[in-house]
Inverse folding.
């Protein structure tokens, strides 16, 4: 594409608030959105459901190729895979754990790369994940690395799940968050790391409105027009 649509990336560790920020920016600019974590969660869910070993690259590649994914859109807020609504299931414990395991596999990442690039459509794309700025959209107009202390991320997740009426333990959440951090940062392929040209935004102690305001200011500095 001679002049590909602009991209804003929001990368960072689990629970840093990437999804909330990405949705707010996309709404403000009226751009498309890619929640890349949901792709890994879908592959994780299917690997788990069909008892596919997370070490069996060829079987995992087949899983990816068999997935017909309909993302949430204006007509439907749900994620439907091969005719099944998986919106809730991909947030479950097993899908979450398996997502990080399948995300380590080079073949899975390669197979998902094409799908992710396909989201880049006019007028622009806000992409959230771990390697959006480093691997998938290296030419992004703005790369935000959204961070927060592990304690604060665990507390936010705890409050969110409690709000949903779920019975969770803060120490358990903290532990699983640290494990996912370690897996995401230390894997060989596409580890979570700060892109050299990223704007690092530490949201510890900031309100959602403050985080959004800082991100939009960074977008303006990059010459993006923010009108509404
Ligand atoms: O962002 P979310 O928590 O939904 O992502 C689920 C898992 O998918 C992460 O823990 C990470 O291991 C993986 N992931 C990834 N690369 C991305 C997005 C998510 O490896 N771009």
């Amino acid at each position: 594409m001679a002049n590909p649509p602009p991209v804003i990336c929001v990368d960072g560790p689990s629970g840093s608030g990437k999804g909330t920020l990405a949705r707010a920016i996309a709404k403000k600019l009226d751009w498309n959105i890619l929640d890349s974590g949901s792709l890994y969660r879908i592959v994780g869910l299917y690997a788990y459901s069909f008892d596919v070993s997370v070490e069996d690259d060829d079987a995992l590649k087949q899983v990816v190729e068999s997935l017909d994914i309909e993302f949430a859109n204006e007509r439907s807020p749900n994620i439907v895979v091969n005719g099944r609504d998986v919106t809730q299931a991909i947030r479950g414990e097993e899908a979450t754990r398996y997502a990080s395991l399948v995300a380590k596999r080079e073949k899975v990442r390669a197979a998902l790369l094409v799908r992710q690039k396909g989201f880049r459509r006019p007028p622009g794309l806000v992409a959230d994940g771990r390697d959006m700025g480093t691997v998938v959209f290296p030419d992004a107009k703005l790369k935000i690395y959204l961070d927060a202390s592990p304690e604060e991320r665990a507390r936010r997740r705890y409050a969110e799940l409690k709000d949903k009426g779920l019975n969770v333990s803060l120490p358990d959440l903290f532990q699983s968050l640290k494990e996912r951090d370690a897996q995401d940062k230390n894997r060989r392929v596409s580890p979570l790391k700060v892109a050299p040209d990223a704007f690092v935004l530490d949201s510890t102690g900031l309100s959602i409105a403050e985080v959004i305001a800082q991100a939009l200011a960074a977008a303006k500095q990059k010459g993006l027009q923010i009108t509404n």
Remarks:
- The beta strands are 7-11, 32-35, 69-70, 80-81, 84-85, 125-129, 142-147, 199-202.
- The chain has a mean pLDDT of 93.
- The chain has nine helices and eight strands.
